[in-house]
Design goal:
Helix content: 25-40%
Family: Belongs to the EMP24/GP25L family.
Membrane topology: Single-pass type I membrane protein
Subcellular location: Endoplasmic reticulum membrane; Endoplasmic reticulum-Golgi intermediate compartment membrane; Golgi apparatus, cis-Golgi network membrane; Membrane
Protein name: TMED5 protein
InterPro entries: Emp24-like (IPR015720), GOLD_dom (IPR009038), GOLD_dom_sf (IPR036598)
Number of helices: 2
Distance between the termini: 102 Å
């Protein structure tokens, strides 16, 4: 079975095995996910990996006060590989061994603001591409009669596949950046409107006070003359 990414409930953070009925991603080497992390909560995920493979994880805080979160990455032995404190984004790559890698997003330091978090997993050297290549060689015969060798065809296909995967990855990251920038702009727009209304209210009050003061001065002069 291909690699899976499962959500671990908050009450089972010490467990590396998936809980019964937990949702899982489709078996893909590239996965991305966006979720809302409530204030005062911590959410953990795990990813089964193979020996001598590579796990690359990139995350971004798209929305929420401060645009920051604590991030932990733990090895199958429970050792802390990465710890980011109050960061808005991060990219980490580790060489893996057999076992379940756990990574957590911690928002317990915030008592009010929830955070919208996007993360993407890129898994390399998981062993599936080599198996596909062996399947190609097993069913193709007479390659010595072709002008182009099977290895050249496979190299071209793998190159195109790698470039397409990189393009999809870049587009996904650009969408995440666009979402975060849009949230920041909407927040700034609300702030500008709020303080504009406050300034307008202050100007109206000051104008009313000035009119009242001027009117009072003229009334006092008329009374003193009589």
């Amino acid at each position: 079975m291909g690699p899976r990414l499962l959500l671990v409930p908050l009450g089972c953070l010490a467990l590396l095995l998936p809980p019964p009925g937990a949702a899982e991603f489709s078996p893909s080497l590239d996965s991305d996910f966006t979720f809302t992390l409530p204030a005062g909560r911590k959410e953990c995920f795990y990813q089964p990996m193979r020996k001598e493979a590579s796990l690359e994880l990139e995350y971004q805080v798209l929305d929420g006060a401060g645009l920051d979160v604590d991030f932990h990455l733990l090895s199958p032995k429970g050792e802390t590989l990465v710890f980011d404190e109050r960061k808005s984004d991060g990219v980490h790559t580790v060489e893996t061994e057999d076992g379940d890698y756990m990574f957590c997003f911690d928002n317990t330091f915030s008592t009010i603001s929830e955070k919208v978090i996007f993360f993407e997993l890129i898994l390399d050297n998981m062993g599936e591409e080599g198996q596909d290549e062996e399947d190609w060689k097993k069913y193709v015969t007479g390659t010595d009669l072709l002008d182009m060798k099977l290895e050249d065809i496979l190299e071209s296909i793998n190159s195109v596949k790698a470039r397409l995967s990189k393009s999809v990855q870049i587009q996904t990251l650009l969408r995440a950046f666009e979402a975060r920038d849009r949230n920041i702009q909407e927040s700034n727009f609300d702030r500008v409107n709020f303080w504009s209304m406050v300034n307008l209210g202050v100007m109206v009050v000051v104008s009313a006070v000035q009119v009242y003061m001027l009117k009072s001065l003229f009334e006092d002069k008329r009374k003193s003359r009589t």
